[in-house]
Amino acid sequence: MACMKLGSKADAFQRKGRAWFCTTGLPSDITVEVGDMSFHLHKFPLLSRSGVLERLIAEASSKGEDICLIKLPYIPGNAKIFEIIAKFCYGVKLELTSSNVVHIRCASEHLEMTEDYGEANLISQTEFFLNQVVICNWKDSLKALQSCEEIFQQAEELNIIKRCLDSLAAKVGADPNLFGWPVKEHTAGILWNGISSDARPKNADSDWWYEDASTLSWTLYKRLISTIGCSGIEQEILAGSLAHYAKRYIPGLSRRQGVTTTAEPIAQEEQKVLIEEIDRLLPMTTGLVSTKFLCSLLRTAVILRSNQICIANLERRVGLQLDQATLEDLLMPSFSYTMETLYNVDAVERVLDHFLAMDQPGASPCSFDDGQLMSLTPITMVSKLIDGYLAEIAPDVNLSLAKFLSLAAAVPDYARPLDDGLYRAIDIYLKSHPSLVESDREQLCRLMDCQKLSLEACTHAAQNERLPLRVIVQVLFFEQLQLRTSIASCLLVSDNLDPSMHLRGGGVVMGGGGGSSAEGGGVGWANTATTRENQVLKVGMDSMRMRVAELEKECSNMRDEIAKLGRNSKGSSSGGAWGSVTKKFGFKMKSQMCSAEDGSVHTKAGAKTTTNEGKRNKSDKSVS
Asked: What range defines the domain where residue 17 resides?
């Protein structure tokens, strides 16, 4: 810390209890009381330096008393600072530092210690130290600004606060190399106008000043941010500093962000005010701070019951960059008086509404750029996030069907390439709410599109007894369509095979050639292998054609059976009707499909090909 030495005489002051004595050999002729401390001094050194003390001494001396008594009910810094001023009046050695110079400057102004009462008086000395040393250094400017908190009004009147703020703001936005700051490593002994000081922290990153600035009180910090903002610095840097400040003083944020908080966190009411102030200072621009921080800020604001304007603004901020959030970010506990649900579902739905209102209004779901789907990337990520959130909140027994439906339906249909995530959430909700009536189950299942379920999801849904019977039939129907589409693709590949290759006597003959596979060497072997695979492919497709015919027949029989059950057993439950259907058909088709996927393809004669051939057949189908 920079310092400036004043005076040359040895210290002649001694303290006894609550009193100070000057041991110069001469008896004291004046007593100055500052607060509960008394100073037994001499008139001449004091009146020769201070206009206020000169007038007070003259008034006290006019009373004719041997020892005049002067009371100073207020002086900036109280008795501790008056001790330094008294030593200065006697010419005793003392030190001006960045920690005490503001108090001394304000006290000397209060006592009128101008050049009219002696050359190089205390006002001019403190001004020189402030302007030529303290203001030129980051750490000293910060310490001086911190000391202004106790005497804010006097420091403001003397323009000390503004000078410190301007100095700090200039250093935040300046190139560190211009000032000789030790960027690579922290080196002591850097000279600034001949005075040793530590100029700057170890690195020169844009956030190097965050920790130092966060040591200021909110009143001074807010003014510092405003001053730095006027200097033209990037908003992202200012927002990062605000986030750092919030994490330091709001324990709810720091625990989730992994930041060490101050030793004495501020009270909850002060935390609430701080959140509201930070919301007012943060620009409403995306990407300035992380979504995780905004979600933590929103969560804490709800817990501390901040005002509704602040909470609404934070919800909007999260919504503007919802595609960058994680599932953990959205799991905000509900702190309503009713405790209706475990998580704050309403807040998440409002956040989603903000995102959808911002997400390229009027954009077509078929907007492509260079063959890639560009406009749907953020909203697709959000749809996956919301589906995961629905699955997480679905086990809550207090979660009403209306809330679940409202949040799930808020995501546009085109935002979900697959409905597997939505199906999973619906299945969990059905499992956790077994008392739902059939109409509610059907309403819930209308959220998903059976055509957008993957093969694995279809397989699970077709055997899911929690789903309504109508939905299972739809799943089986669309699964059959997928199978027929796959067969059609395989047939197209088969029809487009090279006609120049054909079988002859078990070997492969190339069009225009007469060599056998043996004569062809490596090429003949490859062609033989290709021909064998084609044979397997044709046999497999014949089997698949038969399988499709069986599926169509079974599906038709199932429809007839369901119609009969609907006419004859109107009073029976859907589970019993479905049980009779399953017993009648025994899910025979499912077992056959699974065996077909295992790589074993049966021929018409009942012979079974090898497992490797089945795998090659399966790979050919995937390629087609």
From this structure: 3-134
